[in-house]
Write a structure and sequence with these properties.
Blueprint (H helix, E strand, L loop, with lengths): L6 H10 L4 E6 L4 H8 L5 E5 L10 H10 L5 E3 L5 H9 L4 E4 L5 H10 L22 H7 L1 E6 L2 H5 L1 H5 L6 E4 L1 H7 L11 H17 L3 E4 L3 H9 L4 E6 H16 L1
Helix pairs in contact: 2-3, 4-5
């Protein structure tokens, strides 16, 4: 494993250089798709275990397929649950993205589940086949704990969440954030309130020195928010690209 450059390392290198990381989002729990996605020269890939198809049974095989092409991705877990966080890391994820973190207690729980005692509560039990397995200290140093800012409570407690030890970055879910704040399906393009919310999160995180990612609906949105200081931008999923590519090919042939 030491010869593989994980997506945690890739992200930290981009952030240390002051850049914005280019992210891919994988929602298909298929090893062949994972190999294809993993081979692309993106800075980070996140396997979506919340709204994607990967689950406890399929995640180990998907992560193994990524490793075939030298990729060790992040995993978005289904919920802020220690068992799910530890399971993803045991299966070989480079880090986790934890949804619906609304309070300091939520953030502390996520950070502690990512690390072994005395820093946290993670239980020892690696699942991947590569040997030797990194030590607990090496895994603690290498892991990335990212919490999602996507609720009204998270906005209220944002500065305190950013200050929680062990929180390495935040990731904004704009759709759930708008819903939670009573703005329905409005976007930064259609609502000044949503634009202000997103801008507030980005500026507050940058002031605190914490990298901030944003889930974008398209490439134009990603380009817009890169100019506004977002340090990790995801604009496409493997399923969307497959559907768009197939539709374009058929339309062109017709």
């Amino acid at each position: 494993m030491s010869a593989v450059r994980t997506d945690t390392q890739r992200l930290r290198e981009v952030w240390a250089a002051g850049g914005s990381a280019i992210g891919l989002w994988s929602v298909l729990a298929d090893p062949v798709t994972a190999e294809i996605v993993g081979a692309v020269d993106a800075d980070v890939v996140c396997v979506d275990g919340q709204h994607g198809l990967a689950d406890v049974a399929t995640l180990p095989a998907v992560l193994q397929a990524f490793r075939v092409v030298g990729r060790v991705p992040l995993v978005r877990v289904r919920w802020n649950d220690p068992g799910q966080i530890m399971r993803a890391l045991d299966a070989g994820a480079a880090g986790v993205v934890v949804p619906m973190v609304s309070s300091v207690a939520d953030a502390q729980a996520a950070a502690q589940a990512c690390r072994f005692p005395p820093a946290g509560i993670r239980s020892w039990g690696p699942l991947w086949g590569a040997r030797p397995v990194p030590t607990p200290a090496e895994q603690d140093d290498g892991v990335l704990c990212v919490v999602m800012i996507e609720t009204a409570g998270a906005i209220e407690n944002l500065e305190q969440i950013l200050a929680v030890p062990g929180i390495d970055a935040i990731y904004v879910g704009p759709n759930d954030l708008a819903l939670s704040c009573g703005l329905g399906r409005a976007t930064y393009r259609t609502s000044p309130q949503v634009d202000e919310l997103l801008g507030h999160v980005v500026s507050t995180a940058r002031t605190a020195g914490v990298p901030v990612g944003l889930h974008c609906s398209d490439l134009e949105m990603a380009a817009h928010w890169r100019e506004r200081g977002v340090s990790w931008l995801t604009a496409v999923t493997d399923a969307d690209l497959l559907a768009a590519g197939l539709a374009h090919a058929v339309a062109t042939l017709r």
